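Researcher: Going back to the complex we discussed earlier. I've cleaned up the inputs and rechecked each line, so this should be the final set. Can you rerun the prediction on the complete assembly and write out the structure?
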Amino acid sequence: MTHPLARLLRLSGLLVGLGLIVEALTLLWSHPTAFLVFLLLGGSLVAAGVLLYLYAIATYPASPPQA
Amino acid sequence: MPYSTEGVVAVVLVTIALIALLVLRPSLVAARGGRILAFLCLFALPLLATGLGMSAQVEHSKSTSFCLSCHVMEPYGKSLYVDDSSYLPAGHFQNNRVPRDKACFTCHTDYTMFGDYKAKLRGLRHVYVNYIGTIPKEIKLYEPYNNRECLHCHAGARSFEESDLHKEIRPDLATNTTSCLECHDTVHNAHGLDGAKMWKEEKP
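Model: Rerun complete. Updated structure for the full complex:
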């Protein structure tokens, strides 16, 4: 069974990774829509991932996960 | 401070590679080094990449192509190519008196301490109106055009300062008592361009 910390870190990694991909793609297009997608979609995904990471380390500070 | 798109994309790719490592090997965080890695790729680097990305986006938003990408601005872009130097924007654009790739921003920002931020906030409002609000039939400036924006470049320039008429009204221009646009009154005239002769740049 996967340790909750590992599960949360995985989810956090997926959210941050997806957010960063969205942000990078919008940088290749110079248009107001790209700016909105960067801010609203990319920014939100990264923020959610970062907050989830902070929640994970605050909730499971001394529980090292095993692979 | 502007950042290049390539630089931001490089930071993003490095961060994604590190995240992939952490997602595939979560046991890494059992060690101190793994916890530092998690901090870097799930906190520090994403925030850095987002900050740099935001800066790059703001830099993009200063470009002429960005402003003209909205349908409503197309006639204003067209006015930059009128083959008539009495059109103020056309004269500036075609003679490189403003950088062509930042033509709109150069004249439509405030040359004050927070002028750039003010212009960007107005830009956000424009994006909102363009997508959600109602676009007005006639687009107007929020406030009368301030001579400060003209004098930012023209003050001290020989052709400007040595003009007899400018000498006469120089104090009034400095205090905005007389607007530059009272004499230089042909500006975009965006909706009166039908049939106007257009300039085609000759490439060397």
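Model: Worth noting: Chain B has a mean pLDDT of 91.
Researcher: Good, that matches what I expected from the previous run.
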